[in-house]
Structures are given as structure tokens and as C-alpha cells.
Protein 1
Amino acid sequence: MSASGKPRMSREHALRLLRDMLRARRFEERCVELYTQEKIRGFLHVCIGEEAVGAGVMFNLTEDEAVVATYREHGHALLKGISMERVMAEMYGKVSGCAMGRGGSMHLFDADTRFFGGNAIVGGGIPMAVGLALADKMQGRTRATVCFFGEGAASEGVFYESLNLAALWQLPVVFICENNHYAMGTPLDVEHARGEVYHKSEAIGVPSERVDGMSVVQVEAAARNALDAARSGKGPRLIECDTYRFRAHSMFDPQLYRDPAEVEAWKEKDPIVRLADWMAQTGLIQEGEREALEKEITEEIDKAVQFAENADWEPPETLHDYVSLPLPSPLAPPPAPESEPSQTSMREAFNRGLQEALEHDERVFLMGEDIGRYGGCYAVTRDLFAEFGADRVRDTPLAENGFTGAGLGAALGGMRPIVEIMTVNFSLLAMDQIVNTAAALLHMSGGQFNVPVVIRMATGAGRQVAAQHSHSLENWYTHVPGLRVLAPATVEDARYMLWAALQDPNPVLIFEHVMLYNHTAELTPQPQGVDIEKAAIRRTGTDITLITYGGSLYKALEAAEQLAAEGIEAEVVDLRVLRPLDTDTLVESVARSHRAVIVDEGWKTGGLAGEVMAILNERAFWELDAPLARVCSEEVPVPYPRHLEQLVLPRVEQIVEAARRTLGEKP
Ligand SMILES: Cc1ncc(C[n+]2csc(CCOP(=O)(O)OP(=O)(O)O)c2C)c(N)n1
Ligand SMILES: [Mg+2]
């Protein structure tokens, strides 16, 4: 603003803002047409009416500053610098699109311009932006990350969790709330008890302001200040842009919830008309220039449509590409393996793995609740805070979805975060980030964004902590393509799997059974490390195969000893890697023994044991001499009293009995 209070702006500056808004507007108008022609399918959410926000914010961004957006992000994607051709091809679902056509309208991505999506989970991108900013701060970079979301997202818990993290850690992130007064058909006064989002963020500790989002000049000025603050180490900022969408929420929306007169009233504030009129009045735009601009944009759109029309569909053969990236082969050996065998508890083994990773890879940091000052709720991270400090052993507030999302954002930003979630029951609060984002991102982005995050958590029952701390839900994660799921059950795996997991370019979940933390055995040094791809045969035998993992391994081994006393030699296979399953080892073992019992602390219905049985049915049916059997937990929430808890869990005598029964069956 000039001293007189009137905006002062160069001709180029104003022309670019006008051009940017017009590009977004005309592009989306064409998309609406193409939608009615069924060239574009799925959900289509246009931001027509809201262009001043994207244009104003993007104006001052540098190419390497990251943007995280929503499903209403065509304008943001174009203005961040993705070519219109690639965006349009993505709208068509063609392989030349900016996400290989796999994402469509709601999932635009581009690694070159650091456009991280396109996120169709309302609020889902907010912690990712926090993590990207955290990675920049930890790596000493002075750039900002920008995160767009609607006022609807500001009702989600993850909004509060993420802003709190950004404020606590003073991260260089600028939050842009596009308050368009509706979340689908829900008006602002039904969404929020107090409609101004900036009050909420201010209360959290993020300096915030509200601007007229129909004025690109005001948005741009506010964004410039916020970006400067973020870049200069002053921490996060939030700008709430008061704006309005002129069209329906999506193409399926008959707009029953709002009065057409209200829409017309807002159209009077059209940000494009407003800027263009002002430019005409002040002589910043000359006769004929607007027409020339429109013509240039129409030509660009025509070209983009032509490009999309001519582009190819992804061939079916590459459907499975980029579900996961391959592991490096060979894996690098651990940098500091033990030199001598020694009696070691699983807890110590995990701790040493973490210590080694922190010491030998400066990108590694730990993040989670009570992992630092408290030493970890199961004391796995004990002493690491004292050795590595608060930055690298980072205590978080109680915010599973927020800090897990920040972890994957930090992984995208070049770090190697190890996120600890206290127990698998609590990980359900973070499932959105793990399943909807971390696991899907690589495929959804057409191979552009992999998420090398490691997430550790305790699992299992046996400590009388009842129904909300005791379940074995790891098999829920084994359902999800894109994740690697590990279940170390020996001291060697506990000690060395982490180093391998950190080399995985994909998200890895490590499940640590609570009853194994005190399990102590001689740790045999593994100078080459351990693999994270194969199951392990922990005991050989040819009469029957007992297949298990995690906390049930030692029950299966004990059952095998009891069976041996009866002259039955059981082979015990430790799955170790729950996804992707090493089916070859299972099939080979069953081909030798012809009988199998699967032992799984999860519930039977929909569980991992059933999956293993199905695989053996598909791949080893003709090797079997008896029906497969399984021993799982009783189908009840785990109760508190010890006698009942023990009754729920797989017991050695049940395994022995199942094996005997299986051996008694005649083909
Ligand atoms: C977690 C989640 N809940 C519900 C939806 C369905 N949904 C999609 S958009 C939307 C409204 C979001 O409103 P807002 O955040 O204000 O963004 P706007 O659409 O207004 O730009 C809803 C409820 C979703 N995609 N994700
Ligand atoms: Mg909204």
C-alpha cells in the first residue's frame, strides 16, 4: 500500500496477477464443459470465484518452496508452475498427466515444482506441510512451505494438532485458509461456533490475520509478509481469506442449501472483475490488452485439451508400478554391529538399533509421545534424549494423526524420521495419515513421491492393560498396498531390522510385541545386518509346520518342544515380514511337512491367519495331507483380569492340541 492507503503496483505485477487468475478461471470453465462431455470423470471441484487466493499466495513463492493443497487445487497447481498440458492430461486420466493419470482432478502432483497434492481427505495435507517445514528447518534451509485448506478442514482435529506442532517448533509454514463459507452444503454457522478461523489459530499460537479473499492485492500483500516471516525464522503464519465459490461444491451438487441471490451478491465481488476494473481505471491495462490476454489463454487451453486428447492411457501392464519402490540391493550393512555375542533384552536391542541410526545417519530423528524426557512408555528410547538432544529425540504432544503426518512430511522433505506410536490401538488415530497418505502417495503421484518413514509401535496383550491397549491390529495394516509391515521377534531382528527399514524407500511399520520387551537371549552379532524380506525358519521339523510371528513365536516354539516329546517334529516358521509376505518360505515348508497350524494373536475373523491359510490353499493345496488349522485370540475385546486375558490369547496347549488334531487327520 502507498502512503495514501491506495495499492501501488507496477503494470507487470498487476498484469501477472490478472493473467494468473484468468488462467485458473478459464481452465476450470473448460473443465466444466469437458465434464459435461464426459471427458473428465469422478469428482470435479472448481474454485471459480476464489482465484484471488491461489494467485495472491503463489505470486511470491519460489520454485523450490513446497505447496500442499486440497482437492480444489487446479488453480494452485497451474500457478505453482505445472504445465497446463500436464494438468489437463491428468484431468483426463491420461498417462502424460502430472500424476500419470492415476490421481485425476483431486490428486495433482508434481515433484519438479514441489507440488505435493492434491489431497482429497479434508485436512489430510495439513500435517504433511508441517513435516515438510520441519525437514527444512532441521536441514537449515530458509524457505517456506505453503498449505491450503478450507474452513471445513479447520473443524478437523488434525488442523489443531498440526498448527500446534508448527507453533511449538516455530516452523516455516504458511497456512492459507480458504474460507468460502461452506463445507459442501454446510454453511459456516453450522460448521463453526465462531466462524473466524484465524481466532482459533491465533489461540493455538500461530500469528494470524483475516483478509478480503476477493482482493488479490490484499491476499498477495498478506502472503508476502507471512512468507517473509516464515523464511526469516519467525515461525508459522495463518492467513484466513474470506472468499466464496460461485459454482457448486462439485459437479454433483444441486446447491439446495443456498439462496441464488446470495451467490449473485458474491459475484458482484468477483476478484477478476475487481482487479481488471481497477487496472482499467488506473491505466494499468490498455485498450485491447485484456482481449489479447484472453486469446493467449484460450490458445493455451486449446493446446492443453489437444494434448490430453492425444495422450495415451496408462497401459494395464504398468498398473502395479510404483506401489512400492524396490529395496536397495544389497542393503548396506549396519555401521556399528556388536563385536561379541551378549545377553540382550529385546528392549535393549531396539534401543541399540535406534542409537546406531541416530549416530550414523544425520537425517534420522525420533518423534513421538514421551520418547524423550520420559524415556519412552516402554523405555525403548531410554537415554537417547540425553545423548542426542531434543531436536533429534523429539517429544510430541498427544497428536497421533498430526505427528505421524508430520513424520511423513519430513520424510518427503529429505529426513528419515522414526515415529513412535505408543500402541497399535492409538495408531488408529493416525490411520488416515498412514493409509490414505503414506501408503498411497507413491502410486497416486505416478511414482513421484515416496515416503521413507519408519513407524514403530507396541502391539499385543499380556500386561493386563485391557481392551484399549492390548489388541493385535497389525493385520489391518497388512491389508494396505504400499506398506511394509515388520514384526521382529528375536533379539537379532529387534537389533538390526531398523537399519534395513531405514533404507526402504517406502513407509515401514514395525510392530514390537509388549510381552517380548523383557525377553532376553544371546544376541549374535550380524555384521551384514538382517533382511526385511524373508520369513525365518526358527526350528526345523518335517511332521508339521507351525506358522507364527511376534509374541506368539515363543509359544509356538514351546509347543514344538512338547510335540517333540511325543515324537512329532514341528517346523516353526516366523513370518517376520507381515507385508509383503514371503509366501515361498511358507509353501516350501508345507511342501515338506504337508500339514500346518497358524498361530496369530489377532482375532480370527478377517485376520492374518486366514490370509496365510488362503495363500496355502492357493499355492500348496495339493501338498496338504490335512486341513489347515489356526489358533487365534478369542473374539472379544481383551479383558483386564489375568485369568480372562490369558483365556483370550493363544496358549501353548491350544497349539499342541491343534497340531495333534491336524496330525490325526487322514488324507
Ligand atoms: C475427512 C473427510 N471428510 C469428508 C469428506 C467429504 N468432503 C469433501 S469436500 C468436503 C467439504 C470441505 O469443506 P472445506 O474444507 O471448507 O473446503 P471447500 O470444499 O469449501 O473448498 C467434504 C465434507 C472428505 N473428503 N474428507
Ligand atoms: Mg469451505
Note: The first strand starts at residue 67 and ends at 68.
Protein 2
Amino acid sequence: MTPLSKNIALAAAATVFTSVAVIATPSKSHGQPAGSNKNAGTGNAASMSHPSSEAKATPESFVDALNFAFGKQTTQRATHAKGVVLIGKFTPSEQARNVSQAPHFQQGVPITVRFSANTGMPKLADTAPLASPRGMSIKFHLPDGTETDLVTHSYNGFPTKNADEQRLFFIAVGQSGPGVSSPTPIEQFMATHPAAKAFLTSQDPPPVSYATLSYFGVNSFKFTNAKGKAKFGRYQLIPEAGRHFLSADEARRAAPEYLTDELRARIARGDARFRLVLQLAAAADKIDDPSIAWADSNEQVSLGVLSISAFVPDSVATERGLLFLPGVLPVGIEAADPMIQFRSKTYPVSYERRQNP
Ligand code: HEM
């Protein structure tokens, strides 16, 4: 393990350790940690059961694993707990209609956008290493009154290939508190899952802005146009302002909430804009494994532009009532990776827990 990866694993473990102490006295059965944390020195081993050896994840057991890793949920999301909500519009390109007959690829629509920090820790500083990857979730409000959502993050990949492995990843994180002897469960997981190691050790530094990051849909969709022609692709969101990050010195001086302050100032000057791009699958690309990024040389199609123009008046209340569902799709777009439907069944479990903490 490189010193860098060790630091990141320790940072993860240290934060998780605090969270484990928080979830030691839950008031409800949901969110009960699965791990014993026997060696973590919390003194809570008696109140925790061993991790379920169940290999197959369910939406409930997945959210239990997130709550185990990051702490008992209150009014916030099980992951990507810290966020801000804005509004704007999406304008499709001419090429978009050749890709899919989806309604928002034919005409402009209003959008709701939520930017977020990684992990289920709502008070995480924007400069914390664990805050990356950042999230960008988009709700397209379609002309017939229905909605379709796109939920992305600022890393081109994912720690594991499917939901079952991803649940084990979060359990390993939750079991790797300080005092746990090396190799900790997360170190062991990284040793056998190179994509998880890359995810934990190669995140970007804190960005200048939520609007100076690229975001990736990671999961693959099938797009069908009005002539019945189908393509497989993955979404990318490219910032018109370019990709920019803080220097180490700037990051040290940045306030814990600097990203929200920066975005307010930016939006006051003008819209934050992103190009929505579809990266098309090449013949040999795996459609159903989001842990493997496709080559940058793959063909891309510009689908349109998102212009984000204003904060909602009450971001905290709005985000609590807001639920993004990655698998609710209009005609012309279908899930091509089973993870998408699993995500869509799991987000409502977290939603329910944050309405009834
Ligand atoms: C096994 C796969 C996954 C599962 C089970 C899962 C689960 C969850 C859950 C339970 C939430 C909280 C939802 C809520 O309370 O509303 C969430 C939020 C989120 N996830 Fe995932 N996730 C998965 C994969 C991904 C991937 C591949 C990405 C990025 C490409 C991603 C990005 C996000 C973001 C950005 C949010 C915040 C959504 C918001 O703004 O409301 N997740 N995820």
C-alpha cells in the first residue's frame, strides 16, 4: 500500500470511527450496523451484530451498510448527505433527437439540480478528502408533467462492478476504524478489488467550484431514436468554465462551506453551464460493469447544454423532499446495466429513513 492510499484509508477509517460511535445507540432498528467493530475500541461490540454474510444485497441491507459506514441517518441522505439545490434549464442539441426520442431530447425543459459531497456525513467540510467524488443530480421536468433523473458523480468509475460487491465495500469501510490491526478489512478489500483501490486513492483535490468539475453517469443506458436505431452510452457533464482545482495552500485556507458560497457568487454573475455529452460504447466495452471506465477515444455526441441559473429559496427543505431515481426513464432511454434498477429501488429506502429519522 502506498503512503497516499494508507492515508486515505486511515482518513476514511477515522471518520467512520466517529460515526460508528454515533450509531451505537440507535432509536430504531433500521440503520443498525452490521459490523462488530470489536477491534475499533468503541466499546460497543455488545450492541452490534456481526456483518451479514449474505452475498446478495437488498435495497434495505445496502442502506444498512451505508448507515454502518457513515452513521445513523437523520434527516439526511444515507450517502451524498450534504448538498445544495438549484434550478435551471436544459436545451437539447440538434444531434440529441438522432440519438433518442426522449422528450427532453426534442425540446428544452426546466431542470432541478442538486450538487453534493460524497459520504453520509452531512457536516463534512468541503475540503475533506472524503468529500470527493462530488455528486451532481439532475431532474428533467418533462412537458407531460412527468420527470426523469440523471444522478452522476465527479469520478469516471466506481469501486465495484455491482451492488452486491458495493455493499461489502461499505461494510469493510465501517469495520476499519482506528485500532483495527492492519491489514484492515478495507485494506484487504482494496487488495482484491483494484477499482476500489483506485477509487479511494485517486480522487481529485477539492475543486474551485461545483461548476468546475466534470461529472460521470458511470452506468450505461440504451438510447433508441424515432427510427428504432439503438446505441449504448454513458453520460458525461462537461463544465463550460473548465476543470479547476484548489492548490494545497488554497485548500488549507478554504472555509468548510466554501463550495456553496462560491456557487452563490458565481450564479449571481451568470448561469453555470455544463455540456451534456454521451460517450458511446465501443464494440469491446462492457455495458454492465461501471467499475471500468471506457476509453477517452470513444465517439461522443453532444446532447445539449444545462444552464443553472438560481438557488431554490429553501435548499434544506427542498432537498429533504427531493428524491432522484436513476431508473425512471422516458420512452427512448432504457437501463442497460442492472445497477441502475437496483439504485432506483434503494434510493427510496434512504428517502423513507430521512423522512422518519
Ligand atoms: C449499487 C449502486 C448504488 C447504490 C445502491 C446507491 C445508493 C444510494 C442511496 C441510498 C442514496 C441516497 C438517496 C436518497 O436518500 O435520496 C444515493 C445517493 C446518491 N448517489 Fe448513489 N448508489 C449507487 C451508485 C451510485 C453511482 C454509480 C453514482 C454516480 C454515478 C451515485 C451517485 C449518487 C449521488 C450523486 C447521490 C445523491 C443524490 C441526490 O442528490 O439526491 N450512486 N445513492
Note: Confidence is low (pLDDT under 50) at residues 1-50.
